[in-house]
Amino acid sequence: MLAYPQIDPVALAIGPLQIHWYGLMYLIGIGGAWWLASRRWADFAPTWSREKLSDLVFWVALGVIAGGRLGYVLFYDLAAYINDPTLILQIWKGGMSFHGGLIGVLLAVAWFARRNGKRFFEVMDFVAPLVPIGLGAGRIGNFINAELWGKASDVPWAMVFPTDPLQLARHPSQLYQFALEGVALFAILWIYSRKPRPTMAVSGLFGVCYGVFRFIVEFVREPDAHIGYLAFDWFTMGQLLCIPMVVIGAGMIWFAYRREAKIA
């Protein structure tokens, strides 16, 4: 068993002002996305200014934060937020839904593309490889917050998280998700998108890979206590939300290459 590193969730405190690591992870994700986007900006829209790039990153980031929070409220804990609506603003405590954030990004990209004369999937294919750096940073934030830990396990790298009332050795599932949703997904999308691909294919590959990675990790991740398992003592809300991502993503890839073959 490995010892859980005791990391104060508050990175910096200045009087009553507290800066949390969880919030800093979002800044790292946004900053990393902007830097990565700037490396391929000339190929995507050579006539656009850097200000336009900043606008795109800003609206996508807003979609992630607003959609992620509202998605968590709707998908995972609606009753608690109805009881105390002020909880919606307390994002430093965690409680963000990837699938809600994805919906927010889709809406932000649709709005941006319409205003700037680009097709929706042109922009989405550009944005998709940027997302994993934010996903990876967010999972590190979950680990520092000692939240979203895995099931009890006797693997050598299991950890006892300070927030676990049972104090059991558990899978550090946040680190599994960092490795898959952050590192592996970034490598796959970044390498795949370096060459011209049919429009929609990169976005579809994102949906397939994320959905598969998340579905796998859910087997060793402790389900939300207030939801539990949806069926068969192992099927979770996270897995349910990933199934349409995989199906739709695979369909998008198939359609993208089929359309290109017809054009050729």
Automatic annotation (TrEMBL):
Family from the record: Belongs to the Lgt family.
GO terms of biological process kind: lipoprotein biosynthetic process
A Pfam short name: LGT
Signal peptide from the UniProt entry: none
TM segment ranges: 19-36, 56-76, 96-114, 126-144, 175-192, 199-217, 237-257
Compartments, as annotated in UniProt: Cell membrane
Record keyword Transmembrane helix present: yes
GO CC annotation terms, alphabetical: plasma membrane
Pathway the protein contributes to: Protein modification; lipoprotein biosynthesis (diacylglyceryl transfer)
Enzyme class name: transferase
EC code: 2.5.1.145
Binding site for a 1,2-diacyl-sn-glycero-3-phospho-(1'-sn-glycerol): R139
InterPro entries xrefs: Lgt
Domain of life: Bacteria
Name of this protein: Phosphatidylglycerol--prolipoprotein diacylglyceryl transferase
Key words, A-Z: Cell membrane, Lipoprotein, Membrane, Transferase, Transmembrane, Transmembrane helix
Record HAMAP family: Lgt
General function of this protein: Catalyzes the transfer of the diacylglyceryl group from phosphatidylglycerol to the sulfhydryl group of the N-terminal cysteine of a prolipoprotein, the first step in the formation of mature lipoproteins.
Keyword Transferase part of the UniProt annotation: yes
GO molecular function, one term: phosphatidylglycerol-prolipoprotein diacylglyceryl transferase activity
Membrane topology of this protein: Multi-pass membrane protein
